[in-house]
Amino acid sequence: MRKVLIFDTTLRDGEQTPGVSLNVAEKVEIARQLARLGVDVIEAGFPIASPGDFAAVQAVAREVKGPVVCGLARAVPGDIERAWEALKDAARPPRIHTFIATSPIHMRHKLNKTPEEVLAMAVEAVKLARRFTPDVEFSAEDATRSEPAFLAKVFAAVIEAGATTINVPDTVGYTTPQEMTELLNYLMKHVPGIDRVVISVHCHDDLGLAVANSMAAVAAGAGQVECTMNGLGERAGNAALEEVVMGLRTRPQFYRATTGITTELIYRTSRLVSTLTGVAVPPNKAVIGANAFAHESGIHQDGVLKARQTYEIMTPESVGLTQSRLVLGKLSGRHALRARLKELGYTLTAAEFSKAYARFLEVADRKKEVSDQDLEAIVEGDVLAVPEIYQLDYLHVASGNTTVPTATVRLTRDGAAFEEAACGDGPVDAAYRAVDRITGLSVSLLEYNIRAVTGGKDALGEVLVKVKDNGHRFAGRGTSTDVIEASVRAYLQAINKVVAARERDEAAAAQPGQAEAPPALDEGEAEIGP
Ligand code: KIV
Ligand code: ZN
């Protein structure tokens, strides 16, 4: 069995998902979880792109142990030097990932450079990166639409210059599994020195083939797959880590390859990424969707009851979904709740646990059974990692088909209570207006999504919102059996992030010299997003 390296780019390409923006603390939290999951490389960001990206890469490099930490850089000296500056404090030798496009379309229309110029830039970039670190990856952007002979020439030259990983990106999700196999076979035959380096693939999902193309590459001999949790990424996203990893684990005889991933942590990691990015996982998503292990038809249920493997090619436990027998309700004590949360992978501080317990009792009062999904929604939506500047104390809404929707909201901040009432287009709108009156903020609501976390009439509703303030987006999530309350909790979580960000900005402005000036891009360079 070969070991295939898992290169996670959730924090870089994943953050290029439209609408997703993670702050430094959130990126570090995700990186820590990726380290526990066992990924080999974490691409933490694109340091030249913004001061925030630089700070995130630096924080991950300094604080996260285990995987190799990597930063992206175009094939220009300024990017590479900036990437090194962000990475240099990492415990393990970090990776500089430098890239330039090699397809005729990109070279001509985007870069306005000849193939010879591109080749020279690639070589110089790799040489410069090697002066800083022994771990250098080179990506030929849009490789699958490049001339194979030119691609082979570029790869041979960068290997000669010191690249240790060469990456074959299907940047626009254009290729097919068969073409990917043929391209890798061609490169293995025509690139001198290729046997000394790791061959990597990086596939986008524009035609829904990212995972299939990545798996074809592994079968053809690739030693690294670049992927993201939940398949996040630019446009339609990247190959989903959970699908690649479980594909290899489920079909070992076929792929003859394995990974270092602790698959039992996949579900937990997926939930964390979904919570912090605000991107919900579709119910039919392979491996981690709510329906991935649900059997609906009678024939299937009958089969699964007789032998699970009739309709289950992998077990829910193998991705960290527990089949709980312990029913939690309002009579369950703190002990049972603590044990269950531990089984679900949460280690909470005493204060966090008290908060989780209080919310659990509120939910248990309204529901017969509190399921694992309810608990995850409570912990991730109401307990973890969000500053609690404003807290919901009281909510009353009046609404109906002949009434003007009205809401009264009382919030507390630093022990003081603030109450306002407002009318709106609906009860949620009225409640949000009342919150705005209290906070004095007028953010724009970009997205509002509601779903039932669990089944039944007493299901816990989960609301995800995204708001925009001062050019920045903030996600909020709230849960309750009452959807209006869940809506207000979600909005408040986002508002609390806005207030915290404004306070941070004010503190930074009060200490001039601390904030970094945005880097200037070289004239004529490509746009920042690869
Ligand atoms: O999609 C792409 O080509 C990329 C490269 C930077 C690897 O993200
Ligand atoms: Zn990409």
Account of the 3D structure:
Strand 3, helix 2 and strand 4 form a beta-alpha-beta unit. The two termini are 33 Å apart. Helix 2 packs across helix 3 and helix 5 packs parallel to helix 6. This protein has 530 residues and is an alpha/beta fold. It is 41% helix and 20% strand. The C terminus is likely disordered. Bound molecules: 3-methyl-2-oxobutanoic acid and zinc ion.
CATH class placement of the largest domain: Alpha Beta
The percent range for helix content is 40-55%
End-to-end span in angstroms?
33 Å
Give the overall silhouette. Answer: globular
How would you name the CATH homologous superfamily of the largest domain? Aldolase class I
Briefly, what is this?
This protein has 530 residues and is α/β, with parallel strands linked by helices. It contains 17 helices and 16 strands. 3-methyl-2-oxobutanoic acid binds next to strand 6 and strand 7.
What features would you highlight for this structure?
binds zinc ion, three-stranded antiparallel sheet, 17 helices, 530 residues, disordered C terminus, Double Stranded RNA Binding Domain, eight-stranded parallel beta barrel, TIM Barrel, binds 3-methyl-2-oxobutanoic acid
